[in-house]
Design a protein that fits this description.
Layout (H helix, E strand, L loop, with lengths): L2 E5 L2 E5 L10 E5 L5 E3 L7 H10 L9 E3 L5 H4 L2 H7 L4 E4 L4 H5 L2 H11 L3 H5 L10 E3 L5 E4 L2 E7 L8 E5 L4 E5 L4 E3 L1 H4 L5 E3 L9 H12 L5 E4 L3 E3 L3 H21 L5 H18 L11 H20 L5
Parallel strand pairs: 4-5, 5-6, 6-7, 11-14
Antiparallel strand pairs: 1-2, 2-3, 3-4, 8-9, 9-10, 10-11, 12-13, 14-15
Helix pairs in contact: 8-9, 9-10, 10-11
The structure holds zinc ion.
Zinc ion (ZN) binds next to helix 2.
């Protein structure tokens, strides 16, 4: 299912990130001024444009593009998509602005996490013209036809992360803030499973829990996850995000102060396996989540280093 209906006039498009189905989705809000949420990386653009065309939207028709944050699976291809959508403005967190205008630091950061494979995975990073970028502060609103989209500052996964509420559906475009919804087409399991992402380099469990509290007060009906698809009712996504984040916070206490990355990885694999059985799922191993467990371990490891250096309090 490359294109799926997320709500009336809101559709998801499978980006086939990492060449895998069910990994990442972009969303399109149809209307006179079509809105694209998330561009994925340049490697996803064939799938993205095919999905857009299936929905009757040419890239040139787009009037607004939103990226929840600038991690490459969400916005690696934003420069190329903005070039294909000359009428569009780009909306992002104020702290994300300088990275889309000059992606060099972002590229260097991604290289640290993914190594030399980064170009193969995500393709090149292209800058966006400064005068097309609209930084959206916490609480600011974008009117699109009869629809209002409200932006929220949502740190915890990344300090430059914004989440967007569509007021017609009371749905939240959550980026990486309200967990990852792992679907059978990605995992090969016969159930949907949710766990937060704790990937580098800004992950902070306390900040994440505060953000979840704040978002939950918004009385949302559904969560449009970038990874992957829709949680409806929204409360279920908050439940698994909070449960997983709390489990990771306990892990951090247990392994502190200075475990090796391997020890964190082992501990996190155990946490995920236990969480799966808590949800009633017995699996042979957690290998289907291997990529994320590896990334998440790195994020927890970076957080522990910040704790020891006093950058965050413990
Ligand atoms: Zn992501």
């Amino acid at each position: 299912m490359a294109v799926f209906e997320a709500a009336p006039n809101i559709f998801g498009i499978d980006l086939f990130e990492e060449d895998r189905p069910g990994r990442s989705s972009a969303y399109v809000i149809l209307g006179k001024e079509p809105v694209l949420i998330e561009t994925g990386s340049q490697k996803s653009h064939d799938a993205l444009v095919m999905g857009l065309v299936e929905l009757g939207v040419m890239p040139e028709d787009l009037r607004h593009i939103i990226v929840t944050h600038v991690h490459l699976d969400h916005a690696g291809g934003v420069g190329q998509m903005m070039a294909r959508a000359p009428e569009a403005l780009l909306h992002c967190h104020p702290r994300a602005r300088r990275h889309v205008i000059d992606p060099s630091r972002l590229g260097a950061g991604a290289r640290k996490v993914y190594g030399d494979k980064v170009d193969d995975i995500f393709g090149p990073l292209v800058p966006v013209e400064e005068d097309r970028v609209v930084p959206q502060e916490d609480g600011s609103a974008l009117e699109v036809g009869d629809r209002t989209l409200v932006f929220y500052d949502t740190p915890g996964h990344a300090r430059h992360h914004t989440c967007v509420v569509d007021q017609i559906t009371q749905g939240l475009f959550s980026g990486d803030t309200v967990g990852i919804r792992y679907v059978p087409s990605y995992t090969g399991w016969n159930f949907v499973y949710g766990f937060p992402t704790t990937s580098p380099s800004d992950f902070d469990p306390d900040v994440m829990l505060t953000t979840l509290d704040r978002l939950q007060e918004l009385d949302l009906t559904r969560v449009y996850h970038t990874h992957f698809g829709v949680t409806h009712p929204a409360a279920a996504a908050f439940d698994f995000s909070r449960r997983g984040t709390e489990a990771v916070a306990r892990l951090i206490e247990q392994v502190s102060p200075a475990p090796s990355l391997g020890e964190v990885h082992e501990a996190l694999s155990r946490v995920v396996k236990d969480d799966l059985s808590l949800c009633g799922h017995t699996v042979d191993n957690v290998a289907p989540l291997g990529v994320d467990i590896w990334l998440n371990s790195q994020g927890i490891f970076v957080y522990l280093q910040k704790q020891s250096s006093g950058e965050v309090k413990n």
